[in-house]
Specification:
468 residues, alpha/beta, FAD/NAD(P)-binding domain, 5-stranded parallel beta sheet, 5-stranded antiparallel beta sheet, 15 helices
């Protein structure tokens, strides 16, 4: 059987490499707007980057022999939450939610899954001591700020924890119930036997492409997808920019789902319930992507900039009232360290997610000015050294999950169970969604998308054998 991977991103490459290794005929195609190596300023580029920690199981690296193809074990990623006095209790809660999906009966109806999950949490919590039960109650009812305020952790560390738990999300850290946001933020650090990565994914992407190619996958890099033909609710073929046509038995998507369903499909409209979930208006983010070219070799490590909790709440209130903030929360990644090809010698490239802005081209100048002011606060040597700043929208699925309201239990079940998600509910007959595109490899619904697709494909083949 033939498989076309649409979107040359991490989860799609993992799926493509695993399937090719197992003997499937795999072709990897890319979208025109999805080249992470495109220059944003002459001589400057960032490559693939994630601002959300991503845990890749070590067995994937072993099965694909990624080290043979240049993969290097990543440097440790800072876990800001370890400073909390109740960190061990939070880890217990993470493991509790992770175990739910392993033990869930095979219900097909989502309502039954939710009902079972709700009662099972109560059952599982009854096995733990009073401290863990009380911590869960606080996480489910308190604001994130109030949860952290009860500790003696210093203000700057608290602010970094708030930012690390809400980056890319619409969570209001001062709202009741928002403390639950800390549980999925810790999850990548609790994945057993995994490489945890954050920042540049250049090394991983390079090794995955090399591995996929060595297993026989065809990677089309000299032309990109122009349109996708759909017939009777299934993809018929893919037309490239040079009019080359590719057809496959199955199509695996690693692309922004809003762009995919709104702009890429010719002759297809999703069912109304699903269509509402992939509308651009339903997926607006309150952050932007900023790439910065710097004409000096600053020793700037990856960091989250937010000076104290009041800084974060002021930024959010400004965003709600005026649509933008002079106090942006920044996630900063210095990606020029991973490759000498990303910037001229002695120069630096920064990839930034700036929180509490709406992407509005009419406001690009004031947004970039606010980001620059915050950068200079981080490192005064940046003043006068910035060559160029380029702003763009973030992918629609960027960031951590949003918690609103005082009942976070159902969102937690959805996060750790995976169902109720775009990736699991794709209505197209021969389409599987492995990832949500560039920058979204750590998204809670697709953090294991590549290996999940390979597993599902094995199941399909087994069912086909039984049917024949």
């Amino acid at each position: 059987m033939t498989v076309a991977i649409l979107g040359e991103n991490i989860q799609g490459l993992i799926a493509g490499a695993l399937l090719a290794k197992r003997g499937e005929q795999v072709t990897i195609l890319n979208f025109p707007e999805s080249d992470p190596y495109a220059e944003f300023h002459s001589g400057y580029k960032t490559g693939p980057v994630t601002h959300i920690p991503f845990a890749m199981p070590t067995y994937i690296a072993d099965e694909l022999d990624l080290k043979h193809y240049g993969f290097e074990e990543p440097a440790p990623v800072e876990n800001p939450f370890e400073a909390l006095p109740f960190y061990d209790g939070l880890c217990v809660l993470v493991e509790m939610f992770q175990s739910l999906e392993d033990n869930r009966p095979p219900y097909r109806e989502k309502a039954w899954r939710d009902t079972w999950g709700t009662f099972e949490i109560g059952h599982v919590l009854s096995r733990y001591d009073r401290d863990v039960q009380d911590l869960f109650a606080r996480a489910a009812t308190l604001s994130l700020i109030d949860l952290l305020s009860a500790t003696d952790v210093d203000e700057e560390k608290k602010a970094k924890m708030i930012a690390a738990a809400t980056i890319g999300a619409k969570t209001d850290p001062s709202a009741p119930g928002s403390a639950a946001a800390i549980i999925p933020a810790i999850a990548p650090f609790r994945q057993k036997n995994s490489y945890v990565m954050k920042g540049s994914l250049h090394n991983l992407m390079h090794s995955l492409k090399q591995a996929a190619g060595s297993f026989g996958a065809e990677i089309i890099s000299d032309r990109s997808i122009r349109k996708i033909i759909v017939t009777d609710g299934a993809i018929q073929s893919v037309i490239m920019g040079d009019e080359t046509e590719y057809a496959a038995d199955h199509y695996v998507i690693d692309h922004d789902p809003v762009l995919f369903f709104e702009e890429c499909l010719d002759g297809y409209t999703p069912p109304p319930a699903f269509q509402n979930r992939v509308k651009s208006g339903s997926n607006i983010k309150n952050c932007v992507s900023v790439k910065v070219a710097v004409s000096s070799s600053l020793d700037l490590n990856a960091l989250i900039f937010a000076s104290d909790p009041d800084y974060v709440t002021t930024a959010l209130q400004d965003f709600k009232g005026e649509g933008g903030s002079q106090y942006p929360v920044l996630s900063i990644e210095n990606v020029s360290r991973v490759s000498s090809n990303f910037a001229p010698d002695g120069h630096v490239v920064l990839d930034i997610t700036a929180q509490y802005f709406s992407h509005d081209l009419d406001k690009e100048d004031p947004i970039l000015k606010a980001v620059k002011q915050a950068l200079v606060r981080v490192n005064p040597d940046l003043d006068g050294a910035i060559v160029n700043m380029s702003m763009s929208p973030v992918a629609t699925q960027t960031g951590l999950p949003t918690f609103t309201g005082t009942m976070p239990l159902l969102p937690l079940l959805k996060i750790f169970g995976g169902y109720h998600s775009i990736a699991y509910d794709c209505p197209m007959g021969n389409v599987l969604i492995a990832g949500y595109g560039e920058g979204c490899v750590g998204h809670h619904h697709v953090h294991d998308g590549g290996e999940r697709i390979a597993f599902l494909y094995d199941s399909f083949k087994e069912n086909d054998k039984k049917a024949s």
